[in-house]
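During the second year of the project, the team shifted from modelling isolated chains to modelling whole assemblies. The rationale, set out in the original proposal, was that interfaces cannot be judged from single-chain predictions alone. As a representative example for this report, we include one of the complexes processed in the last quarter. Its constituent sequences, exactly as entered into the pipeline, are reproduced here:
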Amino acid sequence: MDELLTHDGVARDVAAPLVRRLKELGTEQLIERQRLAELDIQTMGITFTVYSDGQNIDRAWPFDIVPRVIAGEEWDFISAGLAQRLRAINQFINDLYNDQQIIADGVFPAHLLDASVNYRPQLRGVDPPFGVWAHISGTDLVRDDDGQMYVLEDNLRVPSGVSYVIENRGVAKRAFAELFSRQRIRPVDAYTGELKKLLASLAPGGAKEPQLAVLTPGIFNSAYFEHSFLAQRMGAELVEGADLFVGDDDCVYMRTIDGGTKVDVIYRRIDDLFLDPEVFNPDSMLGVPGLIRAWKAGNVGLANAPGAGVADDKVVYAWVPDIIRYYLGEEPLIPNVPTYRTMYDDERRFVLDNLGDLVIKPANESGGYGLVIGNRATRDELEQAAANIESDPRNWVAQPILDLSTVPTLIEGDLRPRHVDLRPFVLTGRTSYVTPGGLTRVALPEGSLVVNSSQGGGSKDTWIVDGVSNPDDSNASANGADSNKADRNNGGPSAGSNGGVL
Amino acid sequence: MALLARTAERLYWSARYLERAEDTARIIRSFHELAVDSQAEHLTRWEPLAAITGSALGNEPAPEANGPGNLDDAGERWVTWSLIADRENPSSLVNAVDRSRENLRVTREVMPREAWQVVNSLSQYVDRNCEAGSERQLRDRFLARVIDESRRFDGVIDSTMTRNAEYRLFRLGRLLERADMTTRLLGVRAATLLHDDADPRGLGLIDSEIQWMGVLRSVSALQMYQRATRSPISGRAVVRFLLYNEEFPRSVACCLGGLRDILDGLPRPEAVLDAVAAAESNLLDDTPLASDGAILDEAMDRIQNALAAVDHAVRETYVEVRSPVSTAAVRGTVQRQ
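Output from the structure prediction step:
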């Protein structure tokens, strides 16, 4: 399905003013506006870093001026679903590091925890403020051809992209100023203020004006632009590991020209294992020796807490609907993509019988590594996948091949449908905050589902529009019947027509 | 807001490199002016120029086979190319601009955006045009641009930057490098004098005056010198002016005074102030003879050593907080705030 148009090519209600305007402008003017938008991006210096030919290159951020539009009413529902999901996931993480009640109650299998690469047994017994570990989450959503929105992935470690949500809006406002004045499009600027409030709430001893720091791996990191952006917007200090040290009072200090300044809260954008050579990877040059000691002593706030990644493992993902029911006693508002766990005999049998219609994913790899798309794989690849599953059934999951929704995109001077996903950002602390919309990523080659900017994917602004009736044809809200699709025992895969989820 | 030691270090070096680039351009330009003036061309010896940056020149390539009359021309090209465009020479102008830019690139969040743009575009210009610096025909235009952009940078931060610790660290680097380069300029002059002693042609009175005018011009001091002294240009007076005049902003004394003012606004300045005071008394104790190359050269060496001690104190105090400081000391500073 297309996010802006019905199958008959008519504008959906929520997108009607936009589609009308696109038609009035005509392609020539659209191309000109696209050109100006790209110029804005260059002069504003909105970049991302890619590693190529042994060099780190700053590239202009790829942006398509045609936005994705979602009705406010639908978004409120999705937003509630995301907040619900992250509340439950955080209780789950806190439980795993403390009482492990969910294991004792037989809802979550203990052996999964033993096999988890992102579980940090060194952190057992830590109880961070509000019981929250994954303060900042980038949760990937996709919409299937039937209009149903699914959670595809939880990113609970160091999710990136939020700076581009805000920058994209700045560019889109210039490109379509007339639509912003005519419609009620929810602003996205509030994020950095909300993030600052959340971080401040983690300050030890409730410091009134806590010193915040964004911890970056350095200028060669692909997300350095974002680290710098967030530090500037929050008035936080942008620091590298070598700028910090832990004193013999177990507090964290920045090396400043005054000799040292105490840091209250660190928004870390360095992976767990590099954070503290005393506890994790002893060879890490990026981290701060003693940081975990300081955190455990309650002398510094850390977001996200190390070890939060235990819940964004692809096998654990399959349990999230159960996790929501277990901790909150609620039905999940947004379903998972149905996920078959080959460690269970009945599900494995189904997967092996239907390999050609499924996406096969390894549990502990990321970035699409080791993934097999059934309808695109060769016979040999499928046989290899079957053998892999048979020999290590705990290490695989399978999902139906979804047909991601599309948004018209300016390609070679024409508007053509291209597949998109959506990454909203969820803040969880004493309360929850969800960005209105999020980062819409778009796969530019025809039929492609690869949305990663490092692989040539583009981005779009995402408009949450109020004051339009929720159209029947968008079939979007996740009602009870739809969400049951997430249950593991519910039916087979929905047949996808032309793609898989990468 | 607190200034990170790492940021402080980068700002300090960015400033030093930018000043080094500007002053290198100034000195080459003054030699260049002498060289294009046919009356004075025989006075122009390019080799001593290399001493400015304190780096020995690499192996000189064989002179181009343009006939014996062009040997000097080959020396000029080689020396200027080496000082301007040689990427193997760490002190070359192109490297100095590049390093200034690199240090500023990673501290963009603390500097006015326009200031970054000045250095960024200067770096692009120098990269594209540095070969022009060894061409007599194009050299002056190239050098003038480098000097102008560096002045424009100061204009930007002077008019748009908060007088915070970041500003002060940058100014600190500028002034220290400037004082150092002024002494190097006089040192080069000393080297020329030494050379002349061994030269049977000797130096006439007029020639000497032309040379010292060149020295003044290279630090844009000719006009101010004449307003301040109202006497004929003599070596002794020029040296005095460039070392002791407290009102001319490129004199060593004025740079040191400027350092004091800046340090007053930075935390824990005591050790650096002591080093500045030592450099000042060193300066006052020493009135080098402008007519004796060996004495002038030695005196400049002594001042440079005193300036190196200031640099050392700056880095000890504001940069090398990198080795863990004792928490007790840190607590002290935290409480004081």
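The two ends of chain A are 18 Å apart (CA to CA). Chain A has a mean pLDDT of 89.
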